[in-house]
Design a protein that fits this description.
By secondary structure, this protein is an alpha+beta fold. The protein has helices at about 5-20, 65-85, 90-105, 105-110, 135-145, 160-170, 175-190, 210-215, 225-240, and strands at about 25, 45-50, 55, 150, 150-155, 240-245, 250, 265-270, 275-280, 285-290, 300, 310. The longest helix has 21 residues, at about 65-85. It is globular.
């Protein structure tokens, strides 16, 4: 971490500058696809800040909640890295706390105006509160009006990574049955069937005019395979099995009720608290936890039914 921390700090310092700038920030980049390389605003990273919010660009518009959610997340992680290295992290902690406070206070004005908001509030950024009825209402509204209209799943037709992110947020906010509507869809339908690949857009956009020539006989009219969607889905499935929250290790946040009568197990899953292995024994409703977890790790069942937890391992490591 010590080797990469200077780069982390550089990015975090840029976020702070963007939060307080009175002028547009322009950054030249030579990495531009042919379609956009002559756009006059290509070098604009953000506009002047407004009340401590970054007015930054994403997909050629200014999604305020999305941009500032990830800015908060970046500042939190920079603070975490500094703390682990024994460095002063107070400036990153202070900036992150202030940005979270502003997002929370203005959520009724801002949240839900952009479909991207429900992709990031709980996962991966974590600024939103599950006890906030307004935030949860906006999630319900999106589900009823966009993703599951009149009791029918309407898959995201173009930005597949966004639906994977929405499913992850539904895991965190307690709607695992909604998440599994999307998970079942992703596991069963692939752009190149059987290869677990997913696409972006409804055409071959954002290319450098070379991709079309490399496909050979395969005429798939999308950008695929898409790494963002693959990463979102991998991390979603991982958090279904185990995830970290408030210093605890939660098991089974995304396990569906239909698994209750079946044995299942996980072996060697990497976590912040060490390698995790566990097995669920359906006959006795017992969760047996093994693996080299840290001694200060608190293991909590987040399964949708009551279980008895038995910590079997004697290999727990010191923090």
């Amino acid at each position: 971490m010590a080797d990469v921390y200077p780069h982390i700090a550089e990015k975090a310092d840029m976020l702070i500058e963007m939060r307080h700038t009175e002028d547009p920030i322009k950054v030249y980049t030579e990495n531009a696809i042919p379609q956009l390389m002559l756009e006059p605003d290509l070098d604009i990273m953000c506009m002047p800040a407004q009340d401590g919010f970054i007015i930054g660009r994403m997909d050629r518009h200014l999604p305020l909640v999305w941009v500032n959610s990830f800015a908060y997340f970046g500042l939190r992680r920079a603070a975490l890295c500094a703390r682990e290295l024994g460095l002063d992290n107070s400036v990153y902690e202070r900036e992150a706390a202030d940005l979270k406070d502003k997002l929370s206070k203005r959520s009724r004005e801002l949240f839900g105006q952009n479909d991207r908001d429900v992709n990031c509030a709980f996962w991966p950024t974590g600024w939103a509160n599950r006890d906030d009825a307004f935030i949860m209402g906006k999630f319900n509204e999106f589900w009823d009006k966009v993703r599951f209209v009149d009791g029918e799943h309407r898959p995201e037709p173009m930005w597949t990574y966004f639906e994977a992110g929405q499913a992850h947020n539904n895991i965190i906010n307690g709607h695992r049955e909604r998440a599994w509507v999307s998970i079942d869809y992703f596991l069963g339908k692939h752009t190149a069937q059987g290869l677990y690949t997913y696409h972006e857009s409804d055409c071959d956009e954002n290319s450098s005019l070379l991709w079309q020539r490399t496909r050979g006989w395969d005429d798939i009219n999308f950008v695929t395979p898409h790494g963002w969607t693959a990463a979102e889905l991998f991390l979603l499935l991982r958090d279904c099995l185990a995830r970290e929250e408030d210093g605890a290790l939660l098991i089974g946040s995304g396990v569906p009720m239909s698994w209750k009568g079946r044995d299942f197990s996980v072996c060697g899953l990497p976590t912040y608290h060490g390698r995790l292995s566990y097995r669920y024994e359906a006959e006795s409703d017992t969760l047996r936890v093994q693996g080299g977890l840290r001694q200060d790790c608190r293991v909590v069942s987040d399964l949708p039914w009551e279980v008895k937890i038995i910590i079997e391992s004697d290999e727990r490591t010191k923090p």
